[in-house]
Amino acid sequence: MARLNATHDPALRSWVESANAPGAEFPIQNLPLGVFRRRGEAAARARGGVAIGDRILDLAAAVGAGLFAGGAAEEAARAAAGPALNPLMAMGNAAASALRARVSALLAAGAPERARVEPLLVPMAEAEMLPPAAIGAFTDFLTSTYHTERGGRRTRPDSPLPPNFKHLPVAYNSRASSVRVSGEAVRRPNGQRQRPDGTVHFGPCEALDFELELGLFVGPGNPLGEPVHMDFAPDHMFGYCLLNDWSARDIQRWESHPLGPFLSKSFATSISPWVVTGEALEPFRAPAFPRAAGDPEPLPYLRSEADRREGLMDIRMEAFLLTPRMRERGEAPARVTATRFANMYWTFAQMLTHHMSNGCNLRPGDLLGSGTASGPTDESRACMAELTEAGTQPLALPNGETRRWLEDGDEVIFRARAERDGFVPIGFGECRGRIAPAPAWPRGRDDV
Question: What is the pTM (predicted TM-score) of this model?
Answer without folding.
Answer: 0.97
